[in-house]
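Journal club prep — side note

Before the paper discussion, L.F. wants everyone to see what a predicted structure for a comparable chain looks like in token form. Sequence:
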Amino acid sequence: MPENLLIEYWPILILLLVAFAFAAIAVVGGSLLGPRSRTTRKSEPYESGMRAIGPGTRQMPVRFYLIAVLFILFDIEVIFFLPWAVAFREFYENGLGIFILAEMAVFIIILLVGYAYAWRKGALEWE
């Protein structure tokens, strides 16, 4: 009986093998068939046909990344409101309404504490 269950996984195994083979062929083929000449002109950064002024990479302030991470963090946490709101009616009908409401209140308080901490530390300041 267990042998019959494993037969259903053969297409997945074949797909993984084909994907790995394709990736390996692409990497090896690119390194074997690709151009090999390196010149200083080819190594320069290219910007709209103009000669580059300054280094090709510039250091970005950490503040940009911090604001992006905070946005993603709070955005993902807010996404949890939708499933809670959808399931709340069912829990309310089963007698768990106050408990579920209290859990969401604690979640919101934790969110607000984190938001206030980030605000107080100046993480949301844009300069």
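L.F.'s comment for the group: The CA atoms of residues 74 and 114 lie 9 Å apart. Keep this in mind when we get to the figures.
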